[in-house]
Design a protein that fits this description.
two-stranded antiparallel ribbon, binds zinc ion, alpha/beta
């Protein structure tokens, strides 16, 4: 594992040393001079840490914390990330550590000091808010309550969870269960943390793959006094798997338009900006490097640049984060945000990473 980590700078440097560094064409609105139309300037790709202006959204990655919370925070700062998503514990287990690790206060302070604006905790994959089978239904609510209650001690303002599967009980019954489960979690958890429901790719009996279904959950929870704390995450690889063609700017913006119409953009707390190896509408969601999969750069770039999403946090859940590809993918997102419509071709080894920041395919319980 140490060998993998030490290889990280090689990847970064070899790409940035390339004399044919990609040039980002940015249009500068309101430019002075005799040319009335927007001027295009060449901005070289940054050599090291990325710098984002104030108006840019917070963009970062899901990083592993197996070697400590602070290591993930320092790595985020080093590569210029302004958001960080973590697991508070093993994502494929029910067992949760009773209290955050001792370094959690230092982690929270470091992130606040170093401009890592949003910390998100991704809850256990086993949580199934739609299930009715015991003991999993009770465990799901208790497990999520545990995460949200402890989130402030990590400095986290978001807790992201998968919605779950109705397990053959039917969509209506599943949606009723979700509304009830979400209400229970909101009741038992503190202000200042938003509960974020992540869209699914719709495989099996998974709920929440359609924006209409997410809106249905919000409508059900809407009467709850604490419904203001309910928010959503759109994972682009999941959208793609669910049949939303976001490979074009028009397609991606169309999804946002629909979300705005049915739910409201202020509820879009997070976008998981992942490309996908899976075909459109395949109900599968194998994540790929940014702009290097079947979705490609155009739709992902349109989301990053959409001014409605300036307050939305973008988290990359891309492959090989502990092998140096975290910096590469963050830079690719930065280039897209800056207006690039094409990205550097990645070497074959980029597609041979064995580790993934987030595992896909883990089934919810129940
Ligand atoms: Zn997820
Ligand atoms: Zn995701």
């Amino acid at each position: 594992m140490a060998g993998r980590i030490s290889s990280a700078p090689t990847i970064t440097i070899s790409e940035t040393k390339n004399t044919s560094r990609p040039i980002v064409a940015r249009s500068v609105p309101g430019s002075v001079g005799p040319v009335a139309m927007a001027r295009t300037v060449a901005r070289p790709e940054p050599r090291r840490r990325l710098t984002w202006p104030d108006g840019a959204p917070a963009v970062g990655l899901h990083l592993g914390v197996g070697q400590g919370l602070l290591k993930a925070a320092r790595r985020s700062r080093e590569i210029g990330a302004r958001a960080l998503q973590i697991f508070s514990d093993n994502p494929t287990a029910w067992r949760r550590r009773p209290e955050p690790p001792p370094e959690a206060p230092d982690f929270a302070a470091y992130c606040a000091l170093e401009g890592i604006r949003t910390i998100s905790i991704h809850a256990s994959y086993l949580i199934n808010l739609a299930g009715s089978a015991e003991p999993f239904a009770s465990q799901s609510v208790a497990g999520l309550v545990h995460e949200v209650q402890r989130a402030p001690r990590y400095g986290a303002s978001l807790v992201n969870t998968h919605i779950g599967s109705h397990r053959g009980m039917g969509r209506e019954a599943g949606l009723r269960r979700i509304v009830s489960s979400v209400g229970s979690v909101l009741d038992a958890t503190p202000d200042g943390v938003r509960l974020v429901l992540e869209n699914s790719s719709g495989g099996g009996d998974l709920l929440g793959s359609r924006i209409e279904e997410l809106a249905g959950i919000l409508n059900g929870v809407g009467a709850h006094a604490l419904a203001g704390r309910l928010a959503f995450c759109l994972d682009t690889a999941h959208l793609w798997g669910a049949g939303y063609d976001i490979s074009t700017a028009e397609g991606a913006i169309g999804v946002l338009d629909r979300f705005e119409e049915l739910i409201g953009i202020q509820r879009l707390a997070m976008v998981h900006l992942n490309d996908s190896r899976s075909p459109l509408d395949s109900r599968s969601d194998r994540h790929e490097h940014v702009g290097a999969g079947r979705i490609g750069p155009l739709g992902l770039g349109a989301l990053l640049r959409d001014r409605r999403l300036q307050a939305t946090t973008f988290v990359l859940e891309t492959p090989g984060t502990d092998e140096g590809w975290d910096a590469v993918n963050l830079r690719r997102a930065y280039l897209l945000w800056g207006g690039a419509t094409e990205l550097p071709t990645l070497p074959p080894k980029a597609f041979k990473t064995t580790r993934r920041s987030t595992r896909t395919g883990t089934k919810p319980s129940g």
